[in-house]
Amino acid sequence: MSENPFKIIRSTDQPPGDLRKEVMGSVKLMMLLMRFIQLFVADPAPAMFEKVRLAGRTRNKNVENGTTDGSEPTSKET
Amino acid sequence: MLFKKKAKPDAQLSDEDLVASLQRAMDADRFGVLYDRYTAKVYQKCLGMTKDKELAHDLTHDIFLKAFVNLSKFDHRAKFGTWLYSITYNYCLDHLRKKQRHQTTEIKDDLLEDGGPEDRYEQELLSFRADHLSSVLDALEPGDRAVLLMKYQDELSIKDMMEMLGLSESAVKMRVLRARERALAKYHSLYPEER
Asked: Which of B96, B3, B47 is nearest to A14 (CA)?
């Protein structure tokens, strides 16, 4: 029985040597981009704004209670 | 624990273990191990589909990058090799389809309806001379070429083809049948003296 012609025409060429360098370079660049996105985009600094808001709220409370030096107000009523 | 068990070297890990570790934490060196295992197969597949070394080089690069980016979507249901081949086939097909969108030739469906038994077509296809087969495959549409290569060159099962192409069993069988019939029609038009 004759050999399957599909097997005969199968390519046996090896990939060029520089391809590995290119692929790994692109993979590292992609990793860098993913890290960057993770750091600055995917986690869009809500914590930072939260702190700013909380600090502002504490300051307002302090002003209301008559203390402006940043120390926690003491409750005189209790 | 004072003495940690030394981890296996990356090259000894199975594909699935490597992928699982890459899903936990990206590591270019580990991905490099997968690259080394599959690059020849992916490149040869691209070359078989495109017959263009430069294009096969670019497609192989893109396929590995695509695999790396989508690694988190690999759900371990299929083998990693099957998953990578499905990316390879679909990426090459997309590329070739874009390229050949305006060069397609239609074959009347009525030619396909009144065929004989399936086996006869298969035997005839497998009796082509290799150089004739190569010309026939070049003249076929990329989709037909892809399914014939999957079936007769890579000898993939219908189940694997279903996964790769995202089709039902009957749809895959129909695609193979139609591709085979179109290949025969193309063969007879290219080599009428062989009839």
From this structure: B47
Kindly report, residue by residue over A12-46, the tens digit of the pLDDT: 899 998 999 999 999 999 999 988 887 877 665 55
Long-range contacts of A37-45 (CB under 8 A, 24+ apart): none
- Chain B residues with CB inside 8 Å of A34's CB? 26
Q: Which residues of B touch A10 (CB under 8 A)?
A: 44, 48, 153
Predicted confidence at residue B117, as pLDDT, reads 54
Please give the helix or strand (H or E) that residue B80 lies within, else none.
helix B80-99
pTM above 0.90, yes or no: no
Q: What is the pLDDT of residues B133-191, one digit of tens each?
A: 999 999 999 889 999 999 999 999 998 898 888 899 999 999 999 999 999 999 999 98
Output the DSSP codes for A49-71.
Answer: HHHHHHHHHHHHHHHHHT--SSS
Q: In 10 A of CB A48, how many CB atoms?
A: 9
Probe site for chain A from B60, B66, B150 (most A CB atoms < 10 A): B60
Mean residue pLDDT of chain A comes to 72
DSSP letters spanning B22-34? HHHS--HHHHHHH
ipTM score for this prediction: 0.74
| pLDDT number for residue A50 | 55
Contacts of residue B27, Cβ cutoff 8 Å, sequence gap at least 6: B21
Instruction: Identify the residue among A11, A29, A35 best suited for mutation to test binding to B, counting B beta carbons within 10 A and taking the highest.
Output: A11
> In terms of residues, how long is chain B?
195
Q: Measured between CB atoms, does A17 come within 8 Å of chain B?
A: no
- Angle of helix B169-190 relative to helix B118-125, nearest 10 degrees, comes to 50
Residues of chain B found within 8 Å of residue A8, distances taken between Cβ atoms: 130
